[in-house]
Amino acid sequence: VSVRVGVVQFPGTNCELDVVWAVERLGAEARILWHGDASVHGVDAVVVPGGFAHGDYLRTGAIARFSPIMAAVTRFAERGGPVLGICNGFQVLLEAGLLPGAMVRNRGVKFVSRHVCVRVEQTDTPFTLACGTGQVLELPIAHGEGNYFADPATVASLEGQRQVVFRYATRAGEITDGANPNGSLNNIAGICNAARNVVGLMPHPERACELALGSADGRVVLQSVVKAFTERIAQSA
Amino acid sequence: VSIAKTIRLLVDAPTEEAALRQVDEMCERLLANPVIERYTVEIEELVAS
């Protein structure tokens, strides 16, 4: 029995096959979840991948969150199912209210496409449990609106409840303004919900799963969720 | 710098209040993201001919 990961596909999603490839390389099973479906078809984990769902019209993720699949993903998340939003997928989770806050245009106004370093702040989520605390991952970003914003009370609560999972950092793991590629508050690159089963991040771990791509640091993110379920399956066997 | 957009909608409603309620809900759920955006609504009556 292998772990089954559902990968959501909206019109305009463009990273779903990268995620499928990354999941399959880890020995897990991947299944595309069509945006018009009202079910996650019994998968163990859901990834909402990057792209430009519904052309980013109105705001990134604003239209995608009304898709039938998002109602199913919300129910799955409420039951404790692990959900990962990557880049545009993170933006969809913010619009859907599965994670707090919003994205505004990058400081510097331009689309930024390059490798950055992020520091893993929390390892008690299904997508970071195979990481070490403070581990620095080199991952690619490619976004125009990745400048994380929330009101001061929300940011204080995220920090207080250890919900900031990834922060932009230098290669040595220092949190500096220079390491912040988009102006995100507190160098936030990724967060989780209060229940810690829903995680969103702007960098693309699936695009950094082997050295031929410039970095294999992203493997550990999907490996975490596969490991969590492999152990569970082994225990119940 | 702040930018804005104008969205014009034709709403079928019996009263101005009912129209405002409908448009407010549209703004909260879709047209604006209250975390980062503010909105104002102006209503202009069109009488069906």
What does it look like?
The complex is a heterodimer of chains A (237) and B (49). Chain A has 237 residues and is an alpha/beta fold. In chain A, 24% of the residues lie in helices and 24% in strands. Chain A is built from five helices and eleven strands; from the N terminus they run βαββαβαββββαβββα. In chain A, the strands form two sheets. A nine-stranded mixed beta sheet of chain A has the order 2-1-3-4-11-10-9-6-7, sandwiched between helices. The termini of chain A are close together. In chain B, 33% of the residues lie in helices and 0% in strands. Chain B starts with 15 loop residues before the first helix and ends in an 18-residue tail after the last helix. The model of chain B has no long low-confidence stretch (mean pLDDT 92). The A-B interface holds A 58-59, 62-63, 66, 94-95, 101-102, 104, 149-151 and B 30-31, 33, 35-36.
